[in-house]
Amino acid sequence: MATLEWSDELALDMAAMDDTHQEFVDLLAVVEGAPDAELPAAWRALVEHTDGHFGQEDRWMVSTGFAPDNCHSLQHRVVLQIMREGAERGAQGELHVIRGMAAELVTWFTHHAQTMDAALAKHLQDVNFDPASGVVYLPQSLPQAPIHGCGGACSTGDDHVEQQTRTEQVASSL
Predict the structure, then answer these.
(1) Please, is 115 exposed, middle or buried when counting C-beta atoms within 10 Å of its C-beta (0-12, 13-18, 19+)?
(2) Which own/partner contact pairs does 40-43 have at CB distance under 8 Å and 24+ positions apart?
(3) How far apart are CA 74 and CA 163, in angstroms?
(4) Are the C-beta atoms of 150 and 72 separated by less than 8 Å?
(5) pLDDT tens-digit series, residues 62-93
(6) Of all helices (H) and strands (E), which one includes residue 129?
(7) Residues 110-151: pLDDT tens digits?
(8) 2 in the Ramachandran plot: left (φ > 0), alpha (ψ -120 to 50) or beta?
(9) pTM score
(10) By CB count within 10 A, which of 62, 83, 106, 166 is most buried?
């Protein structure tokens, strides 16, 4: 099984996001190393963390000009739903499902952090967003129209359908 370790490649130079991402990586490592008897509880802890983690990023996006149905938030919803389904199946004794999902999350998270989250971090820095207070210090830098993409190169409306397709592909790999 491929493991994920926190590294500079995952750091986005935004402490609030980096701290949350490092917690995710640490909890995923607990899942990967958990014996069968502890696996469902370790997975539930990862799902709970991920719910808060994605919710935080989704609130930041809405506060800084993203459309509620943007592709980044859509990917969060899909991945979280799949993780919850994994928790249900793990509770029924299907531990191989959780182990398979954990392995897929290693690849998914690395890509997600380096693309969508990197674009979000840059956007938040560009508008001088303070994650602690929720204040946008450069409101003149907010987009004129809601962002439907991820906040980076995929931010045009035309790319929204393409990003939705990618999200569906992610879902099928988990």
Answers:
(1) middle
(2) 40/87, 40/90, 40/91, 40/95, 40/98, 43/83, 43/86, 43/87, 43/90, 43/98, 43/102
(3) 9
(4) yes
(5) 999 999 999 999 999 999 999 999 999 999 99
(6) strand 129-130
(7) 999 999 999 999 999 999 999 999 999 999 999 999 999 876
(8) beta
(9) 0.88
(10) 83
